[in-house]
Amino acid sequence: MPALAEDVEDLKAQVRAMGAQLKQLTGSVEEAPATGYGADDEAPEGEWAFPPFILLLDSPAYEDELRALSEWIEGVLVPGYLAEPSADARWCHVWSEHPVAVARLHALWLAWQELTDPATCGYSGPSTWHRDHYDPCMRELRSSGGPFTGCTKGEHQIVHRQPSLVPSAWSHE
Asked: pTM (2 decimals)?
């Protein structure tokens, strides 16, 4: 395990060095990083480090984020990627009522935004998105044990029991 800890520290140092080099090359020493906080910075108390986990958002921020996610799903994901649902590859047209699906799809969308921009990730970003994000997400969502298990073409069911209490780690105050 000590070797792993050393590797992690080496990676951190490399990231810091690359960040400093990037700032020097672009002349953006005073510019804030795209994430809102630097690698060594923490979010100020009571503020989110962006992007926040969608299930932790309160109204109206949740509705705004869900609306933007819905536009991407209905405009890109469904027509471009999702074939006709079947017993082996389920999809629920009321996906937004499945919290697990909302969380996974939101993460998939955030990765899409980052990895389809050649300016930030190069030209291999879409391949990385498919391999590391889309394929695993769809395997989980559309599997026979996934959140759409009780849903069939034209019929929506939530067959899992929702937790009665939200874990304290999920609350943001």
From this structure: 0.62
